[in-house]
Amino acid sequence: xxxxxxxxxxxxxxxxxxxxxxxxxxxxxxxxxxxxxxxxxxxxxxxxxxxxxxxxxxxxxxxxxxxxxxxxxxxxxxxxxxxxxxxxxxxxxxxxxxxxxxxxxxxxxxxxxxxxxxxxxxxxxxxxxxxxxxxxxxxxxxxxxxxxxxxxxxxxxxxxxxxxxxxxxxxxxxxxxxxxxxxxxxxxxxxxxxxxxxxxxxxxxxxxxx
Length: 210
Known about the structure:
This protein has seven helices and nine strands. The protein is an alpha+beta fold. Strand 2 and strand 3 (37-43) form a beta hairpin. The longest helix has 16 residues, at 190-205. The protein starts with a helix and ends with a strand.
């Protein structure tokens, strides 16, 4: 009997063997770390409808980056401590889209960018997640305000922002929606997501993925 339960315990603790990375994973998603905040981005050439419609306002852009945040904080230029604290409470969210003419590595530094390989289907699922963050409309979404710098714009967000659902929670959810092995539950800080994405990048570089 003891041997039987030991066998069950060993079976339950067994780590699945790595699988070969699919040959269909020939597209890229870019994970960009901006201090305490993480963006998710795509090459414009790999954008699919309806998210691809957002590139029309930036015809020279080569990449589009997306990040989630607190609406009041993002749209307040000189945020004070009170504004930062208010972001801890549930409130309206916002998407900041950034159009890049240079590569993410050139724009933010190679140490702050991870490239993950995905299939066209995974890229579509991730892009659909971002689109449906902004609108339930299948055809269009309208910017609510210009962004804080050239080549950026604010878009509405349906989910609320809070201390338990931060920009990094949202980024992790977006990657999880594409069936990537990324945990989103309990992810509030950039480092929690960054370590998962970096581990996945290393696995992909070795030609394997769980």
